[in-house]
TrEMBL record:
Binds 1 Mg(2+) or Mn(2+) ion per subunit. Belongs to the isocitrate and isopropylmalate dehydrogenases family. LeuB type 1 subfamily. NAD(+) binds at G282, S283, A284, P285, D286, I287, A288, G289, Q290, G291, L292, A293, N294. This is 3-isopropylmalate dehydrogenase. The lineage of its organism: Bacteria, Bacillati, Bacillota, Negativicutes, Selenomonadales. It catalyses: (2R,3S)-3-isopropylmalate + NAD(+) = 4-methyl-2-oxopentanoate + CO2 + NADH.
Length: 358
């Protein structure tokens, strides 16, 4: 990675400021130790942008993100912005960034660290082998389909949301999932509801065709309800899961619980433009400013930024190994703390990760 690389930091709301600060310090240290560097600038989005600009996603933030090599986002939203007009909600910043940057794939690695296997809601022996990559289609489906808000028709109130997928949308996400599987166990599970939904029948057909181009990848199909069950019964059987926007949203949140804390999990949103990296948790305004937030999901998101956008796999591996070592050494933020371990603040957890970079 050359010094010409530039990233945008969007702290957002709630604990976003704390976790992005810790992740930035870790990223800078990892870059230096890998013989590289980057510049960064801070921009606003979400509730903080509403307060300052009157809108959740200012044009200057969009422009900076388009020009950057990567974007690291904290979290957006909070109760103080729950009652604004729907088009001004803080969460619109995320949807807006996905659209403006052409991001069509959300990658969520679900890994259970051995040191935390006992904190999973499932038995340790069930989750010990969990290492799943969920690839969620991000820019299509029911979230972006035609909708009719609630209205009274013939005396009955009703509403409607439509799901639509095109062949190109399915092709590109399945290709990405197959490419990702090549560096893993080589197995892709395509999740749909083809026994009921027309869009799922198209999805299954196209997925099978695309997989033929990847001889080193084994593709299987699974209905979404069965997948939800298998994530609880046999999560270690999955390698890469690829699915639609709605199903991916639900399944990735279910799978996130396997790790023992949602604060541990990163994500990457990739596509035609600048990659966006963020932890999967929310802004947690109830603990903001108290040093209680777990920064590891954001720190691991920074590792994904190095891997996918800054072409610095060395720094990514250094960060991931340092996080695992910190947990092995018994350091815990409040969300994963148990008696007998060392409780640390958000900032201190970042420092402990930096101390283990090598």
């Amino acid at each position: 990675m050359s010094s010409s690389k530039n990233i945008v930091i969007i702290p957002g709301d709630g604990i976003g400021t704390e976790i992005t600060a810790a992740a930035l310090q870790v990223a800078q240290a990892a870059a230096a130790q890998s013989g590289s560097s980057f510049t960064y600038e801070t921009k606003q989005a979400g509730g903080a942008a509403i307060d300052e600009y009157g809108i959740p996603l200012p044009a200057e933030t969009i422009e900076a993100c388009r020009k950057a090599d990567g974007v690291l986002l904290g979290a957006v939203g909070g109760p103080q912005w729950d009652h604004v007009a729907p088009e001004l909600r803080a969460e619109k910043a995320i949807l807006g960034l996905r659209k403006e940057l052409g991001l069509y794939a959300n990658l969520r690695p679900i890994k259970v660290f051995p040191a935390l296997a006992g904190q999973s809601p499932l038995k340790a022996e069930i989750v010990s082998a969990v290492n799943i990559l969920i690839v969620r289609e991000l820019n299509g489906g029911i979230y972006y389909g035609a909708r009719q808000e609630a209205s009274v028709v013939n005396g009955v109130e009703q509403a409607c949301d439509s799901e639509m997928y095109s062949r190109p949308e399915v092709e590109r996400i399945v290709r990405l999932a197959c490419r990702a599987a090549i560096g893993r166990k080589g197995r892709v599970t395509s999740v749909d509801k083809a026994n009921v939904l027309a869009t799922s029948r198209l999805w299954r057909k196209v997925a099978a065709e695309i997989a033929q181009d990847f001889s080193e990848v084994e593709l299987s199909h699974m209905y979404v309800d069965n997948c939800a069950m298998q994530l609880v019964l046999n999560p270690g059987n999955f390698d890469v899961i690829v699915t639609s926007n709605l199903f991916g949203d639900i399944l990735s949140d279910e799978a996130a619980v396997l790790s023992g804390s949602i604060g541990l999990l990163p994500s990457a949103s990739l596509g035609d433009g600048t990659g966006l990296y963020e932890p999967i948790h929310g802004s947690a305004p109830d603990i903001a400013g108290q040093g209680l937030a777990n920064p590891l999901g954001t720190i691991l998101s920074a590792a994904m930024l190095f891997r996918y956008s800054l072409s610095n796999t060395q720094a990514a591996i250094m960060i991931e190994q340092a996080v695992e070592q910190v947990l092995n050494d018994g350091y815990r933020t409040a969300d994963i703390f148990q008696p007998g371990f060392t409780k640390v603040s958000t900032e201190e957890m970042g420092r402990q990760v930096i101390a283990r970079l090598r």
